[in-house]
Specification:
The complex is a heterodimer. Chain A is an alpha+beta fold. Chain A is built from 21 helices and 22 strands. Chain B has two domains: 81 residues, no CATH class; 187 residues, MetI-like fold (Orthogonal Bundle). Chain B contains 15 helices and no strands. Classes of the chains: A alpha+beta, B mainly alpha.
Chain lengths: 690, 332
């Protein structure tokens, strides 16, 4: 044994590459029954816009019409409403009534989304706002038809040269207070909120969001025209969905804007505090009551412009409630049956929650979607001073740029064990890095996977010039780097989540096996975010965001196409990103992808991206697993396999306006039965039409 | 007595002043601020890009003076407080005074209920255990006391919520009232709904309180039961029960009365642990939440409030001790 070890040491000392890691095929992800199967369809299978022979509404609204408190339904609907196809509704045409009870940890700043106020998250804004296009339900759209769904913009045409995009808005639609919706609302949002640099819409819409130099003009009351600086920037259609192009009611907002009043910008932003109820919306529901630290109640929008094929005005659910509690309480309430909806994202809870939901008496059911939650080990690539704290961090950041080193890191990771440290069973799958397996642009053949191999990892460390010169079991820098000290790597993780902590601990332990001293840096909340944003780490265990799932959203996160677009490689003091050669190729691919019109070109570009990024271990993937939608059993029309997050959050994905509760299962939880939103600016709970 | 009271109140002012400085510095000593939270929410909930999220954070710092030197931020806060303005919570987007007004009464009601029940039951158990030393009752109470003291409150709360939500399917969890009852005027039905929601939180706190009070009372009473004046009382023909209740118990209560000066801190700590786990809107949850997201003025103001409560508790404890013990009262 001693002889073998000695031989190995001699080989390494001589700089001989023993058996550096070899690429292999990525193992297939295990299948399991609790994972819902998505039926892939075309856009035309989900919806269309057309006038129907007759329309219908809840009985209490008919009574309000009779009493003269509400205009006739035909006058409230647009000329051609959006019609959801029955064939795409799992349980078919629904019935009216009941409520969906959410629990959230956020609190509302106010109702001025256009000026940057949050409504408390958890899908409130998704229920209130409608945007030019829609992305949430795209998880069920076939790859060859993949593009955002029409929404407020019912259709669009590109000019021949691709420099102009004409959008046709839904005609005759109205805000929840009965005022007409038109291109003026769109233009007010664009001119007085997006272009006005003193206003900062929630989710950060700015002129650059739609391409530098892009202009927008009103053609007529129902038509707008975009003009771009590049041809066919189809990517902007995604930016026109939630949450960067959801216009607010100009007839309410414009009088408060500094351009039309003596208000300051701050006064404009705060002109619609949480106590300003019945703010007009285009969404399926409108806020009618707010009790601090208790609840926000939304009631159905009587002017909602979507119907089912039988002409029933949507939504089917009369009310939405948002209990103002904590995010952790959301799971507990849903499991207990006092809440209706939660996104189960922590794998540590999967088994227990599955067991609980299998009980026939359990109020909630659990359905897993695709594996769209994934973690990767990100390397801090900046050798330009960004995030440097001391000589060691400078040396490690430079080391991160060495391919042999990254190969050593990826092959030291036993991903099977890492997944099992989170949850045992078929939930987690091996994730080599790059785009998530199973997603639209993922291509297995283009994915380079370096399997777990301790010996190969050690050989790659040696090839990177790292040897244990002091015999303490940990490799050292070469003498001319950082004084030949031990290589010490800080790995940042979010201490708020057990998943993050488990993965960090796993990486630390696996590093030790190959002689890498990895030091966990677990921080909570703002401390973690501050360290991340300042680059105060060498590696980071991070949950990957939507660019790894869809490639078409947050595409600029895929590679450093700008000075600050990726969170692991930013510009130094000189404003420049010190790109590596392969990284430059990734940047070029991403830029081409953003400007690509043809679906085939986009697919080919992403294959190339996948190959280069995984071959070079741009990020060392750790594990992927599905989230589970936890929803009360009484709800119907929830699409099977709806992911808790893909193109948007589950609150958008399941198309809540067509979710219903069969009559025999309806609860008596409506707080304001038989009422509708009233006059904008009413006191909470007091403006209701009844 | 009035002079004593005035002296205690005046001497509290510099303590509070120093406390504001220490609190403010400690709160700001960790990296990150609310602007980081804003950026984080934009990224996670709104799918905003890094650049957009960072730009929003930069703007937030400018708008709210977070780039100003700490000393300026501190004096701005103190100046506002001296003018009756506690500032505005970034997270709740409402005046901090409103946040406190909404949450403090609930928290105080909870902790006082826990305290009163824990004290009454604990002292009673302590008397029973001490007067039946080494009996099965004493052993049982000692075991309960050991369990209550050694089990962390958060762990007890976690186990309880697991059993209630996952195993029994209890509906009344989180918040003070079910949604329906939160819309009703106060009635017996609403009060009962309140009890159904808060009993687990009270149970966790009371079990700990019982354990502490019982162990302390038992120990003190065992000491005083052997004191000469108790023997004398018995020798004078007083029944054992009367000797215990009239002479031994009042003297055994002194350390417990002195403990009241520190009890508020322990009670609030306990309230924080259990309320966070049960997700009910109290001061404890507001402190933890505001600290984690950098809503610094809320944290600082709540810490100041707790400091004031601690001082008030200390003064009340001194008064209670003086009332119980003539030696303190008469200054002998």
């Amino acid at each position: 044994m001693k002889t073998v070890t000695g031989l190995m040491a001699a080989m390494l000392a001589l700089g001989v590459s023993a058996t550096t890691v070899k690429a292999d095929a990525v193992p297939d992800a295990p299948k399991f029954d609790a994972q819902g199967k998505v039926t892939m369809v075309g856009v035309g299978d989900i919806l269309e816009y057309k006038a129907l022979p007759s329309y219908n509404e809840p009985e209490f609204m008919k009574a309000l019409e009779k009493a003269g408190k509400l205009p006739a339904l035909k006058d409230r609907l647009p000329k051609e409403p959006m019609v959801y196809k029955t064939g795409n509704m799992k349980d078919g045409i629904g019935v009216y009534g009941d409520v969906m009870r959410h629990v959230i940890g956020g609190r509302p700043d106010g109702w001025n989304y256009s000026a940057g106020q949050s409504q408390g998250w958890g899908g409130i804004d998704i229920g209130l706002s409608e945007c030019l296009t829609r992305t949430g339900p795209l998880f069920q759209v076939k790859a060859e038809e993949l593009q955002p769904l029409p929404n407020l913009a019912k259709s669009w045409d590109w000019s021949k040269d691709g420099m102009q995009l004409t959008m046709h808005l839904i005609e005759g639609a109205k805000w929840s207070d009965g005022e007409p919706f038109s291109a003026d609302d769109v233009m007010f949002y664009w001119e007085k909120n997006v272009l006005d640099t003193n206003v900062h819409p929630l989710n950060g819409a700015n002129p650059g969001t739609f391409g530098e130099g892009t202009t927008l003009e009103k053609v007529d009351a129902n038509t707008i025209k975009w003009t771009f600086k590049t041809a066919f920037p189809t990517q902007v259609l995604y930016a026109m969905a939630y949450g960067t192009f959801c216009p607010g009611p100009a007839h309410i907002l414009a009088p408060q804007h500094p351009a039309n009043s003596k208000n300051t910008y701050d006064e404009y932003k705060n002109a619609f505090p949480p106590t300003y109820s019945d703010m007009p919306t285009m969404g399926a529901w409108t806020e009618v009551d707010y009790k601090p630290d208790n609840i926000i109640v939304l009631r159905r929008n009587p002017y909602y412009w979507k119907v089912d094929e039988k002409g029933n005005q949507l939504p089917y659910l009369n009310e939405m409630q948002y209990r103002l509690s904590t995010w952790a309480d959301r799971d507990v309430q849903t499991i207990a049956g006092t809440g209706d909806f939660s996104n189960l994202e922590q794998p540590e809870n999967f088994v227990e929650s599955l067991k609980k939901s299998a009980d026939p008496a359990a109020p909630a059911r659990l359905e897993f979607g695709q594996r769209t939650i994934g973690y990767a080990l990100e390397f801090n690539y900046s050798a330009n001073g960004w995030g440097d704290t001391d000589a060691n961090s400078v040396a490690v950041h430079n080391l991160n740029r060495n391919l042999n080193f990254r190969k050593a890191v990826t092959s030291m990771l036993d991903r099977q064990r890492l997944g099992e440290s989170l949850v045992k069973g078929p939930f987690t799958a091996i994730y080599p890095g790059g785009l998530f397996p199973g997603t639209s642009f993922y291509d297995k053949a283009s994915t380079v996977y370096y399997p777990f191999n301790v010996d190969a990892a050690k050989a790659d460390l040696a090839a990177a010039g790292l040897k244990d010169t002091d015999g303490d079991g940990f490799v050292n820098f070469s003498k001319d780097v950082n004084g030949g000290k031990n290589v010490e790597i800080t790995v940042l993780g979010n201490a708020d989540y057990q998943t993050d902590k488990s993965l960090v601990e796993g990486v630390v332990a696996m590093g030790e096996k190959v002689g890498l001293r990895v030091i966990p840096k677990l921080l909570s909340g703002k401390d973690h975010d501050a360290a991340r944003d300042a680059g105060k780490y060498d590696w980071e265990v991070l949950r990957q965001s939507s660019e790894m799932i869809t490639a078409v959203q947050q595409t600029d996160h895929l590679a450093p196409i700008g000075p600050n677009t990726t969170d692991f490689h930013k510009a130094g003091a000189d404003g420049k990103v010190d790109l590596m050669d392969f990284e430059q190729k990734l940047v070029d691919i991403v830029n081409k992808f953003i400007g690509a019109k043809d679906a085939k070109d986009r697919i080919a570009l992403m294959k190339e991206f996948q190959k280069i990024s995984t071959e070079n271990v741009y990020k060392a993937g750790l594990t992927v697993y599905p989230g589970a939608l936890l929803i009360n059993k009484r709800f119907a029309n929830v699409a099977p396999g709806a992911p808790i997050f893909m193109y948007n959050w589950a609150e958008d994905n399941i198309i809540r306006e067509r979710v219903y509760v069969p009559k025999d299962k309806q609860s008596k939880n409506e707080l304001f039965p038989d009422t509708l939103p009233g006059k904008p600016g009413s006191a909470p709970g007091e403006g209701l039409v009844k | 007595m009035l002079r004593f009271l005035a002296y205690r109140i005046l001497s509290a002012i510099p303590v509070l002043f120093v406390m504001t400085i220490i609190t403010f510095v400690i709160i700001h000593s960790t990296p990150g601020d609310y602007a980081d939270y804003v950026a984080s929410m934009l990224r996670s909930e709104g799918h905003a890009s890094n650049e957009v999220a960072q730009a929003a954070a930069v703007q937030f710092r400018i708008d709210h003076g977070l780039n100003d030197p700490l000393i300026i931020q501190y004096f701005r806060w103190i100046w506002d407080i001296l003018h009756g303005n506690f500032g505005t919570s970034y997270f709740f987007n409402s005046p901090i005074s409103e946040v406190i007004a909404q949450r403090l009464p609930r928290s105080l009601a909870l902790v006082l209920t826990v305290h009163v029940l824990g004290t009454i039951i604990g002292v009673t158990f302590g008397i029973i255990a001490a007067t039946r030393q080494y009996s099965w009752v004493d052993n049982l109470f000692s075991f309960i006391g050991f369990l209550g003291i050694s089990t962390p409150k958060f762990l007890f709360a976690l186990v309880l919520i697991y059993i209630l939500a996952f195993k029994i399917g209890v509906q009344e969890l989180g918040s003070f009232y079910s949604t329906y009852w939160s819309y009703q005027p106060m009635s017996f039905g609403k009060f009962w709904n309140l009890i159904l929601h808060v009993w687990p939180i009270i149970l966790v706190g009371v079990l700990n309180g019982i354990s502490y009070n019982m162990r302390m009372m038992r120990g003190n009473l065992l000491d005083t039961l052997n004191a000469q004046y108790v023997e004398t009382a018995r020798a004078k023909g007083l029944s054992n029960t009367m000797a215990v209740l009239k002479h031994a118990v009042p003297n055994a209560l002194h350390p417990l009365a002195a403990y009241q000066s520190a009890v508020m801190r322990y009670l609030i700590e306990g309230e924080i642990e259990t309320s966070v786990i049960f997700g009910i809107p109290t001061i404890g949850v507001a402190i933890v939440l505001s600290m984690s997201i950098g809503d610094v003025l809320v944290t600082a103001t709540l810490m100041l409030m707790l400091g004031i409560l601690q001082i008030v508790g200390s003064i009340l404890s001194d008064l209670l001790l003086a009332w119980l013990d003539p030696r303190v009262r008469l200054g002998t």
